[in-house]
Write a structure and sequence with these properties.
CATH topology of the largest domain: Neuraminidase
Strand order of the largest sheet: 14-9-8-17
Shape: elongated
Distance between the termini: 112 Å
CATH superfamily of the largest domain: DNA gyrase/topoisomerase IV, subunit A, C-terminal
Largest sheet: 4 strands, mixed
Number of domains: 4
Number of helices: 20
Number of strands: 41
Strand content: 15-25%
Radius of gyration: 38 Å
CATH architecture of the largest domain: 6 Propeller
Length: about 850
């Protein structure tokens, strides 16, 4: 009975809602602060920090042999992290995977899993050690740079944070799901991140007039371009990145890196070479196969994974009539070839979870480094002062060395070392520390002390002491030390970006971020396109050999060159009469000898469709006059082309066996000149061509003889300052005044405009030029030459002109483009040419 009463006395009534609330809050805070969220200072969660510290304690430096992962997890679990070994091992594995961490912190040896999602081998088989970069996380940890706390059972001490000599939180990112909150920080490029820290330091140090300037977040955004994934891929647009950097929250759209390859049988092959971050390649391929099977994606006839140790290569062969871009868009929509990533830059600041923007995060890191370097410097100063005090004692002892040795020998026999210490302290005025050092030395070493060596050591110690005191006494000097040390890390471990950031059509302000400049855009016969700066090519004398302007595929030739601003719309008109539109800056920039990008990667071209003409457009006013090879002309108001869908729109209904050749911007009352391959030219008024709708066919512009085709068309000016240049395929050409050609009616036979002979070959193109302009010619070998129009003679209608470019046997001129005076760049020495 008494036992029952005692039991009832120990029962306490508690409201369950109150107990649940209190217990859950305790649990939630434990998860938030001690498990799921990273510390803003070193970017690590406790489990990562404990593994790295345990490896450091085990001596697993990059220059030491690897050790079994089972031993590493065992040490970490037994000393610092009393949780499951499988959880510890999976964390260790992830820190070693080069597709998970942008800069791996563990150097693994053995099977550490794959991007296909296959697990790592058991920890008894794999081995690991610290990576070279992770040693920078632990540098100077033995110098009292960070606080230590007792481990879970009080037997060992563990660090509360690592020194982290580079901003690991941004560089490697993190993913953590706590209770009621989460953190998702994507990885960034080490070079860019360190450069941002350096900018903050430089702004603060400044000059006497600008010292102490606070860094604007816009400056940091200019330096840190955005996430940089270990798997590369492409980020679409910058809005999400800016939002995340400014507010701590954002969203980015990441797309696989895809190439189009033309196969010998005329089919197109889609090759995926880079995947979005954290995408399982094996499951992605299975998903694509499922989409093809379920008819959600149509056009793929072959799918295979050709990836190897050199990189990812997922190959998809398409049906001959399939539109590659349509297939890709469906894959982007239904599979992980395109993924969106939410950014939530939450981390622990002084033990509390906070959302941080880019500037906040770097400021907290810099604040941590100031503490680390200050504590390290104080440690080094204390050590140097202590040693200097001892060295001073040794130098003082040298003045009385024989007597000190005699005292130590005599007193050791009677009262031991303590007696000799007391005597020499009283006799010579040594401190306790100096006396201890003198007495503890072997007598042979004491008698062999060299004054010169000790004086050199003392001088060096005094220099270091002065330097340490300067650092501790000046924030500017402290920041300079941090800057110099982090610069060394950047130069040693920094690399180029792997992830591209490209403009996204959904962001209307992208054009505002692109510098406006004049570019040369080239298009080849096999529809490869590229953009180059105008100053790539320098002016040469007439008759030069030229420079290599493009490296083409086998049997490919350059067919079109035009000059445009990066802010211009580029209208692509195809041989089938369809029109597509891109901004000039959306055309990938390439080197002078690069072959460029397949147009099929930019436009949703259908099977057999090729780009026939391209024109730059800034304002949609006036008319478009379209001219076909069969001499058909069509005039349509530009307003019809303001809104062009991604899949293009019909600009001209093409008749059978005809193709679109040229496109002209007109005002409705211009005079048009059309030239043919056989040297015929016709001049007529645009008013004779009635305006028609977008899908109409057009009317006849010139009556062609058997076998002749139109090769070019230009708008003639009202004044006589310009002239028409004719270029023939064998390198000949001439300029002719427009008034040599009388005005005729539309659909006439025209007049003799150029004397075509076997020597000159047929005409390949015309252009309207002035003496201040220059001409760019391209031959069938891809060689480009730039010529002054003033160097080309002007002659009458029925002449063949002069030689413009020297050609090797079998080589033809295949394209020309005018460079207007305002687009010229400073030329090199006129006499210099580069032969190929």
């Amino acid at each position: 009975m008494d036992n029952e009463n005692n039991m009832h006395d120990r029962i306490v009534d508690i409201a369950i809602d109150k107990e649940m609330k209190q217990s859950f809050i305790s649990y939630a805070m434990s998860v938030i602060t001690a498990r799921a969220l990273p510390d803003v200072r070193d970017g690590l969660k406790p489990v990562h920090r404990r593994i790295l510290f345990a490896m450091n304690e085990m001596g697993l430096e990059p220059n030491k042999p690897h050790k079994k992962c089972a031993r590493i997890t065992g040490d970490t679990m037994g000393k610092y992290h009393p949780h499951g070994d499988l959880a510890l091992y999976s964390t260790l594995v992830r820190m070693a995977q080069d597709f998970s961490l942008r800069y791996p912190l563990v150097d693994g040896h053995g099977n550490f899993g794959s991007i296909d999602g296959y697990d790592a081998a058991a920890q008894r088989y794999t081995e690991a050690r610290l990576s070279k970069l992770s040693t920078e996380m632990l540098t100077d940890i033995e110098k009292n740079t960070v606080d230590f706390t007792p481990n879970y059972d009080g037997e060992f001490m563990e660090p509360t944070v690592l020194p982290s000599r580079f901003p690991n939180l941004l560089v490697n990112g993190t993913l953590g799901i706590a209770v009621g909150m989460a953190s998702n920080i994507l990885p960034h490029n080490l070079t860019e991140t360190v450069n941002a820290v350096i900018r903050m330091i430089d702004n603060y140090i400044g000059t006497d007039e600008t010292a102490g300037r606070e860094t604007e977040i816009s400056e940091l955004i200019d330096i840190v371009k955005g996430p940089d994934f270990p798997t590369g891929a492409t980020i679409l647009g910058t809005n999400g990145i800016k939002q995340a950097f400014l507010t701590g929250r954002g969203k980015v759209l990441v797309r696989s890196e895809v190439e189009m390859e033309e196969m010998p049988n005329g089919k197109t092959r889609v090759v995926v070479t880079q995947l979005p971050y954290q995408v399982n390649k094996r499951k992605l391929i299975e998903k694509i196969a499922e989409l093809v099977k379920d008819k959600k994606v149509d056009g793929i006839t072959y799918l295979n994974d050709d990836s190897d140790r050199h990189g990812i290569r997922i190959v998809m062969e398409l049906r001959r009539d399939a539109n590659a871009n349509v297939v890709l868009n469906n894959l982007y929509k239904h599979s992980q070839l395109q993924e969106s990533f939410g950014i939530n830059m939450m981390a622990l600041v002084d033990g509390e979870p906070k959302i941080l923007n880019l500037k906040d995060m770097l400021e907290e890191y810099l604040k941590h480094q100031k503490i680390v370097v200050t504590r390290r410097t104080q440690f080094d100063l204390d050590k140097a002062l202590k040693r200097a005090h001892i060295v001073e004692g040794f130098l003082k002892a040298l003045d009385h060395i024989d007597e000190i040795i005699a005292i130590i020998r005599s007193h050791r026999e009677v009262s031991g070392e303590s007696g000799s210490k007391a005597v020499i302290m009283e006799r010579f005025g040594f401190t306790q520390e100096q006396a201890d050092a003198i007495v503890e030395m072997r007598l042979r070493a004491l008698s062999g002390l060299e004054r010169e060596r000790l004086e050199k050591e003392l001088a060096e110690l005094n220099r270091l002491i002065a330097e340490y005191r300067e650092i501790l006494g000046s924030e500017k000097r402290l920041l300079e030390v941090i800057r110099d040390e982090i610069t060394v890390i950047r130069d040693k471990f920094g690399d180029e970006r792997r992830t591209k950031i490209v403009p996204y059509e959904g962001e209307i302000e992208i054009a505002d971020l692109i510098d406006e400049e004049t570019n040369v855009i080239t298009l080849t016969h096999l529809n490869y396109i590229k953009r180059l700066t105008l100053d790539t090519y320098t002016t040469q004398n007439r008759g030069g050999r030229g420079v290599v302007g493009v490296t083409t595929r086998d049997e490919d030739i350059v067919k079109d060159i035009f000059v445009a601003s990066t802010h211009d719309d580029i209208l692509f008109l195809t041989n089938l009469g369809k029109m597509y539109r891109k901004k000039a800056f959306q055309i990938p920039e390439a080197g002078r000898t690069a072959k460029g990008t397949a147009v099929i990667n930019l436009l949703n071209l259908s099977a057999g469709e090729k780009v026939a003409s391209v024109i730059p457009v800034r304002e949609y006013d006036g008319y478009l006059l379209l001219v076909t090879k069969k001499g058909i002309v069509k005039k349509t108001n530009m307003n019809h082309f303001k809104n062009i869908r991604e899949n293009g729109l019909i600009a001209l209904n093409i008749r059978e066996e005809d193709e679109l050749l040229a496109v002209l911007r007109t005002n409705g009352e211009d005079e048009i000149f059309i030239a043919t391959k056989n040297g015929i030219g016709i001049r007529f008024s645009e008013t004779k061509v009635r305006e028609v709708g977008r899908t109409a066919t057009g009317v006849k512009g010139v009556k062609l003889s058997e076998g002749d085709i139109v090769i070019g068309a230009v708008i003639l000016p009202k004044d006589n300052e310009n002239k028409i240049i004719f270029v023939a395929e064998n390198g000949y050409g001439k300029c002719t005044e427009p008034n040599e050609f009388r005005l005729q009616g539309r659909s006439g036979k025209g007049l003799k405009a150029y004397k075509v002979t076997e020597k000159t070959g047929g005409l390949i193109g015309i252009a309207l030029v002035s003496d201040k302009d220059e001409l760019m010619l391209v031959n069938s070998e891809g060689v480009i030459i730039r010529i002054r129009i003033a160097d080309i003679s002007t002659s009458g209608r029925a002449t063949m002109g002069v030689k413009l470019i020297n050609l090797h046997e079998g080589v033809k001129v295949i394209s020309l483009a005018k460079i207007a005076e305002e687009n010229k760049t400073e030329a090199e020495d006129e006499g210099e040419t580069e032969e190929v």
